[in-house]
Structures are given as structure tokens and as C-alpha cells.
Design brief:
434 Repressor (Amino-terminal Domain), six-stranded parallel β-sheet, 3 domains, 45% helix, Rossmann fold, alpha/beta
């Protein structure tokens, strides 16, 4: 190795103002661990890790930014809530529950939606964080995990509905695969010869992947070939293609149509009811999610009720406890650090007249 170039590298690091990112990189630990060290939180940190960080801090001549520490110490009593689509049944109930619990403790929400676009999500996350929110709760695309890890080293971050392994982040999800398996088994157990599953492209979205897996596993256990249609809700031709395909299934009666979320069912419900199939005798209808109108139609719609109220309440409590310092942040790079939690709250099958 060229020692001259090595000394030059060290000089460059020392000459510029060192950051906690520099310390984490040089010490071989995560930003979360460095943050815990700087805040004197040594409870779950080994002596070797502490010494390694202290040595790097001394080597780099790190000086904490007093202004930044002061800003972090002051709370704004605000929490960012970022969702994919505010009209989505899950999001409506979740935000309502989250806000209700936080407001009792004097916190208010900054709410934004991303449309599921990674670039928009990144911009929204950065914008919300620049407002000095005390915590962040979001549905994530999974494409901005690096940014979320950095933010989680400074304020509590809770992911809902979609889980990803990110340093210092708590995940709150429901049992999508098991619930989808239960729904498909229910439909086949009612005597439907085929269950048609309509979903949006998985695109590595954990909820979509898990629901599809539950469906296909149930079909396999009943010896029924899966029939999956992928749709684009923004494309009317895509939805029309599914309706036409279902219309041609007269010889497969009785069959059931099961949609992966309530928004797809909203788009398909009227066109399907116009087909010449009696519900539920010839065609069953079911969906993941429980839309507000599910009990208003005749026959009532069979649904999987997600625990949105419970998840909103739990998310709020996790945020409040993390702000108070009662829940330690996780750090996979530090073997002595507690691991991040993933809470799984089960969904419930709600049978309706559309499949009975």
C-alpha cells in the first residue's frame, strides 16, 4: 500500500468536519451505535465496541455540533405519517386511530401520500424530516431504506403494513399470507370450483407477495390450479380485460372472484354484478380489506378485516415509548444491541352473503 496516499486519506478526514457517518464507517459499526454512544446510552453496548468508537472519535477529532444537538433535544410535538394512498381503506382507519392516540398526548400529525412512487417517497421523507418531526410512521416502498436507517438513528421510525429490515426501525404488520390462505380455503370449502385472484403487480411489495403466496398455497392444498390476473387500477382496459375473462367462465360455475385489496374490488364490483351470474350461487365475491360499503350492498361482501384500529393504536404507543426512551433502538451491526421488533397482528375473516 502507498503509505503517502494512506496518510493523505487520513488527513482529508481529519481536516474536514467529521460526522457520525465517518465515525460509523471507520469503527465498522452502524450510525445507530454511534448515536447511542454519543448520547451515553451504553446499556447494551460491549466494552470493546465503546473503546473502538472512542478511539475513532479521538483519531478524527470529532466535535459534536452543539446547535444540532440542541435542535434534537427540543421537541416539536409532531409526527409524520406517510402512506401510499389516503383513500385506501387501510390508511383511512389507520390514520384515524394513530391520530386519536397521539392527540391525547399533545402530538399532531403531518400527513402525506406517495402514490407508491419511490422518488416521491424520498422527497416526502426528507421534507418531513426537515420539519423536525419527533417521529415518523410510514408505509414504505422499500426503496429508501438507507435514508430511513439514517433517520432512525435520530428519531423513532415505525413501518406499517409493509416490513423491511432496517436498523433501528419497528415493523407493524398483519398476517397477510395466513389470512389469504384462510380466505381462499373458505371459498373452496364453500364449493366453488375455481377461485380467481385479482391483484396488482407484486413489484416486491411484501403485502402483495404474501397474499399471493397464501392464495397459491391454498389452491395447492385443494388440488385446484391457481388463476391469477394482474391489473393496473389506473388503466380501464386492464380492468375490462379481467371482466371479459370472467364473463367467459360460464362453464366453470360456480366460481369465486377474490381481489387482493379493497380498491380493486371497488373498480370491479359494478362490472361483475352486471354479468349474468347469480351471487353467491354461481359467482362468489370476496376481498382482502373491509371497505366501508361492504355491509351496505346486497348480499353483504365477504372480507378480510385488517386490524387497522389496533395497528394505529400500537404504532402510536411505540412512537410515544420510543420518544420517552423506553424502547431501545436496534442495531444489527452491534452484537450486544437489542434487535428491532416486528409485531404481527392477525386479520379476521368476515364471511358475508356474497359467498355463503
Amino acid at each position: 500500500m502507498d503509505m503517502t496516499s494512506q496518510h493523505g486519506k487520513e488527513a482529508t478526514i481529519v481536516n474536514k468536519r467529521a460526522t457520525i457517518q465517518d465515525i460509523a464507517r471507520e469503527a465498522g459499526v452502524s450510525i445507530t451505535t454511534v448515536s447511542r454512544f454519543l448520547n451515553g446510552r451504553f446499556d447494551s453496548m460491549s466494552a470493546a465496541t465503546k473503546q473502538k468508537i472512542a478511539d475513532v472519535i479521538h483519531q478524527l477529532g470529532y466535535r459534536p455540533n452543539a446547535l444540532a444537538r440542541g435542535l434534537k433535544a427540543s421537541q416539536t410535538k409532531s409526527v409524520a405519517a406517510i402512506v401510499v394512498n389516503m383513500s385506501y381503506p387501510f390508511c383511512v382507519g389507520f390514520l384515524r386511530s394513530l391520530s386519536r392516540v397521539l392527540s391525547v398526548h399533545g402530538y399532531h400529525l403531518f400527513v402525506a401520500e406517495t402514490g407508491g412512487a419511490a422518488e416521491v417517497e424520498r422527497d416526502v421523507i426528507q421534507s418531513m424530516f426537515s420539519q423536525r418531526v419527533d417521529a415518523m410512521v410510514l408505509q414504505s416502498t422499500g426503496d429508501n431504506n438507507d435514508l430511513l436507517a439514517t433517520i432512525a438513528a435520530q428519531v423513532p421510525v415505525v413501518l406499517v403494513d409493509r416490513a423491511f429490515e432496517i436498523d433501528g426501525v419497528t415493523n407493524l404488520i398483519t398476517n397477510n399470507a395466513e389470512a389469504s390462505f384462510e380466505m381462499t380455503s373458505h371459498l373452496l370449502g364453500q364449493g366453488y370450483r375455481q377461485v380467481i385472484y385479482v391483484t396488482e403487480p407484486e413489484a416486491a411489495v411484501p403485502t402483495r407477495v404474501d397474499r399471493l403466496r397464501g392464495y397459491t398455497e391454498a389452491c395447492s392444498s385443494y388440488g385446484v390450479p391457481p388463476m391469477v390476473f394482474h391489473v393496473d387500477r389506473e388503466n380501464s382496459e386492464s380492468m375490462l380485460h379481467v371482466t371479459n375473462a370472467i364473463q367467459s367462465m360460464a362453464n366453470e360455475r360456480p366460481f369465486a372472484v377474490y381481489t387482493a385489496n379493497g380498491l380493486i374490488m371497488i373498480e370491479l364490483y359494478k362490472p361483475l354484478r352486471k354479468l349474468a351470474f347469480g351471487v353467491p350461487r354461481e359467482m362468489g365475491l370476496a376481498t382482502f380489506d373491509q371497505p366501508d360499503w361492504a355491509s351496505l350492498v346486497e348480499p353483504t361482501l365477504t372480507c378480510i378485516r385488517q386490524p387497522v384500529e389496533e395497528m394505529g393504536t400500537l404504532a402510536a404507543n411505540v412512537v410515544l415509548e420510543r420518544i420517552k426512551g423506553e424502547i431501545e433502538t436496534s442495531d444489527p451491526l452491534d452484537e450486544d444491541s437489542p434487535r428491532g421488533e416486528t409485531h404481527i397482528i392477525p386479520s379476521t375473516l368476515v364471511p358475508g352473503g356474497s359467498t355463503l
